[in-house]
Design goal:
alpha/beta; seven-stranded mixed sheet; 11 helices; globular
Amino acid sequence: MTFEQLLIFVAVAEREHLTQAAAAVGRTPSAVSASIKALESYYGVELFHRVGRRIELTRVGKVFLGEAQATLARVRSAETMLSELGGLQRGTLNVHASQTVASYWLPPVLMRFHKLYPGISVKLKVGNTRMVADAMLEGVAEVGLVEGRVDEPALTVRRVDRDVMAVVVAPTHPWAEGPPLTPQDLISGASWIMREEGSGTRAAFESTLTEMGVDPAGLNLVMEFPSNEAVLSAVRESGCAAAISMSAAGPLVERGLLKVASIDLGARDFSLLRHRERRQSGAATALEELCVEAGNVFQSSMDPHIFSQP
């Protein structure tokens, strides 16, 4: 088994698409296919099911994927260690971030990092909070950034910023111009569009409801989506409400395309994750310092009260 075979297998497994995997690793689709077949033939296993023009992992493939990802992570860690001997001149930093952080907060920080360390390649992967925590536990990511709560003994959680949450509705919704809402109104007065299970946005909203004495299970959930953008688009075209970050909803609110209902959901943390037992590279430490610095200087204008109706 070669490093290249592992690299190709992981690329195909993560995308479940030969052509996309080939582009990602800089090989032709035929070379990628031949590499997978050679691996399967040598070890006498089937790693993928061929279903028409699609491919999907077999049970054996799913088990092997975790080990292959961890092996590649260890190789990259060794590479990073050597690169640091040259003073952060070269190397790769694998960062995983949940959607709100990755889409609205992190990009300026990464551009600042690139300006300071142009030789370090940052590989950013976006998922929900649960996915990011899992990537940190498995060693696939060296730095994780999330907006949800993480309770994992193996990980340290460091707050780097705060994020305002709000309930948003279409301009024609009764809550758009209505009086202040009570927690019970959230259960009895609306249908909801929400992020998927495992997202930090959903977890934060459900936690806030619980603190208000309201059971989240009582929400009339009509649809859930895997992205903030999809949630916001659906709310604009419906009579439903959504609880979401003002980092995501703010531009639409400012343009009058959405309204903020008059109820305070408070704020939540943007947090940086580190593994307690794994050595952190100099590149990861440098990015963490920039994240903390960004949080210290960030002055949010997304206060829901300035959008709420009197």
